[in-house]
Fold this sequence. Notes:
The chain has eight helices and 13 strands. It is an alpha+beta fold. The protein folds into two domains: 5-127 and 277-282; 135-268, 3-Layer(aba) Sandwich (Aminopeptidase), CATH 3.40.630.30. Strand 8 and strand 9 (200-206) form a beta hairpin. Helix 1 (12-18) runs antiparallel to helix 2 (30-42) and helix 3 (79-90) packs parallel to helix 4.
Amino acid sequence: MSNLKLRFDSGVSEFLRNSIDLEKEASIHSFILSLAARYQKSGRAPTCMVRGIDKTGQFIIAGIQTESNRPIIISKCSENNARLFARELATKISDLPGVNGPVPGVDTFAKVWTEIKSCGLESGPNLRLFELRTVNPPRKASGSFRVAKAKDEAVIFGWLREFHHEAVPHDPVQSDDELYRDIRDATKNEQFFVWEDEGNCVSLVVSRRETSSERWVGPVYTPKNLRGRGYASSLVAAVSERIVGSGKKGMLFTDLANPTSNGIYQKIGYNPVADFRQFVFTSKPKT
């Protein structure tokens, strides 16, 4: 009999209340907590919210899957607890598209899941989580920062499509209608920011998820023909100043395969918290 038991929550408030231990390490768990908070605010329920507890009822691990075609995000945990969590979850859930979370627990979860489900495994991006408390302003690029407006929606649509193709091709693709709805909603709520130079938008920062103590930055996108001019650095710094000014920490992920962005963010004042990894579960090819 396993020493870990699963508890599924039907509502986000219930999940957050029962997963209060995540806040003991709020920065490393900000990904999970901010996703849950966003769904709570929208009134929607994620596909799956699950916790692992020991035989005394003590919290061990949590996972959230926002949509059926999205990976499950797991909390920081030991390799042994990740192994137990994967084994127990495999008895309750027939299929997962993937998993994301802090190493090394996520590596163990992925290995055990693929063994149990006899599925294939593809490694997605290796990510580094950063946090910022104080902004070190970079040399200001030509132009200025502003909140995106309705008139920018067509440009933002094209840029988000380019970002998806370039940076996260493994992620599910939204329909045009879904993406435009998201853009209109984010623009209305002042969650998109642009750098403007000579009357033209030249860079984009999205900031949509937050908790009581952190706000996330990302994605960040500058078209290829406009890179190398400091637009993204200036825009990220400006958005980060706005976050810090609200009394919160800035949070973001970087892809470790992109040393340029990693260096830029650290110069602005972002400090590493933990490494994350994403895996995609696939059907094994027939032999």
